[in-house]
Amino acid sequence: MSTKVIIHIDRFKENFEALKDRIGENRRICVPVKADAYGHGALEIAKTSVEAGAFCLGVATVTEGTQLRKGGITAPILLFSQPDPERIPEIIESGITPFISDIWFADALNKYAEINREKLPVHIKIDTGMGRTGCLPEEACNLAKHISICPGLELTGTATHFAAADSADADDIAFTQRQLGRFKEAVRAIIDEGIDPGIIHTANSGAVILHPDSWFDMVRPGILLYGYKTAEENGIQVHYKPLTVKPVMELRTNIALIKKIKKGESVSYGRTWTAPCDTTIGVLQAGYADGLPLLVSGKWQVVINGKSYPLAGRICMDLCCVNLGTNSDVRRWDEAVIFGGSAPDAAELARRTGTIPYEITCNISGRLPKEYVTKHDIANDEKNQ
Ligand SMILES: *Cc1c(COP(=O)(O)O)cnc(C)c1O
Question: Second label for 326, Cα 20 to 30 Å away, from 70, 94, 227, 319?
């Protein structure tokens, strides 16, 4: 075994069930699988999600959507970001449902869809305070009217995205509520015009946890399904039992080499770590190119045979070193868990390096093989040891 990413599919399914419990059976679920499903493998996660009952999937690029279609996914695919106009033919060929922020894009899509005598499903995206994509709330009704007269387009959904829904600060709670208010007003205007806004959806992970009044017809939580709670219900009036999720990703490697070093000798670039006494160093086959952040050098412990050992010296591109101590019974090729599994998870790694779990899992390198495990596989694993 060398370095690999273990994806605990059984945990993903449990997280999905926990989400369903939280939002109720009548709401749909869109699973964001952008950025290779936050580093977990888009196709596998998409397949598992659809099997578990997801209504649709969310991507950030047209290529991500096409890859899912090539992999056999037939569920609706929402394109969250604004694509370049030259990708429009592919959007239509792949049957991807884009978010529309303005009349220009509606026209550009319509022109091509009409030639192909197709009716492309589209969702209106309203910017209620994220300050990124989406039309202004007061423009939404006009955009809906425009789409309704485009023969090549069919309005099947209306959405917004929250800027601070994962924060329980009173200010941020109030801000999210203001975003919700603007959104509801815009949707009301569309309905009053006699236009069906389609599936109404707003909630990311934070809003699933903290804002039940934002769940509408469908929710779009990403990080929560991958097993990280970016907000806690603590102190918030939630009439639901606490939502528990488990981290899906685990990074494992093994010890490629073991060597003894003397007191005062340094390890790795920059000589930032020197042995305080004679000790044993293990060389692990994982570095920052694999997604182990350089910033966690000297601030992390890996787990080998159930025991924690501190990293020693700077993390290199492809390797890092661990201090096994004086009397270690660790042997060459033993397995080391870097994060997830029996070691602290990606969220803890993020805290130590001043970032967010999203960035940790997204940065896990595509060069690492992924192993998808279910409970059944783990049971077999344990039997074989
Ligand atoms: C990424 C994304 C989400 C999911 O966000 P999480 O914080 O991971 O829950 C939902 N909606 C849109 C539009 C997104 O881009």
Answer: 319
